[in-house]
Known about the structure:
By secondary structure, the protein is α+β, with helices and mostly antiparallel strands. It has helices at 51-59, 92-106, 112-125, 129-141, 159-166, 174-187, 191-200, 251-258, 265-279, 281-288, 304-310, 319-335, and strands at residues 4-10, 13-26, 29-38, 43-44, 48-49, 63-64, 72-75, 79-82, 213-215, 241-243, 246-248, 295-297. Helix content is 41%, strand content 17%.
Amino acid sequence: MSEQPTFRIVDGERIPGLSRPAFVRNGDHHYLVQLGIYADGLIDCWGLLTLEEFAAELRRGRIVTRFEEGARAAVHETVEWEFSKVNGRLTPESLYAEVRDDIDDLNGRPDSTARAWRALHEFRADPTEERRAVLRAAYEEIPEHERHAALADHSVGDGPLYDLAMGPGGKVTAEEYQESLDYFDEEWGDPLEWLARRDREPQPEPEPADGTVLLHEWHAPEDWPEDAGASVLRNEYPALFQIGDVTYRNVHEAWLALGPPPEARTAVMAALLRAKYDRHPALADVLTATGSARILYRANSLAPSETAFWGHEDEGRNWMGRLLEATRAELHARRLGLPH
């Protein structure tokens, strides 16, 4: 189903999301609407629903995926029609799985296909029935109509993945099972190497289509590239500045050295950001060039409580992103000659 970026504003914060079409039943009509699916796990379907409430609406048939011939449908105050020769490909389970994947994608978490890949390699590295059960569950979480593309190999579809998930016997013959084992050995290589590489490499965070600036976690603080792009806005970026008689290499170092009490931490961080951008006009230019875009700051290298406060991950409060936006506003005001 087609997706479009969207958002909603909550307490002054922009919550990114996606919209996708769906039908809602009201009486004897089925209305075509745009579901709003948001990073905080809520779904807008004539009112905000949690994922569990969305699943309940699917089960009771208020949100519809299949239609009988002659069923009446409408786009509100625009057009009405009746279905004939209906050939729907969605089930309630597959729509639910799509929406769940959307929420994972919006939060930079592995979706059902990525989880199945990992379960596959863990099973190949240690082919126990317990790991097969995990693989089978992960495979069945992939939206049914998307499983054929799970291996990104149209020549085999999802056949080899299905065979390993189900195991020999029943619908999978011993010969088919061995062929699938051979396929992964030849095409996917050593599972231990794959797992080690995935654990070693930072996982990419999806770039939003709505202009939001994502400041990814930086894994090599002493080895910044010459053109670091918007990453120069991160606190770890080398940018000497002075507080009192002490010179700090970057905002992160200053923050650790000052160790402010919880009730003063946002004010202290705001002061450190001002010192950084006052000292480095070129970095201030990078910040102001973000315009009015929302800034999301990834902070998952910190302790969990700090990550939830400073970062945006897993419904975090994103205070670091907010303070960067406030600093940006001060820079704009100063350049206009306005008080700030």
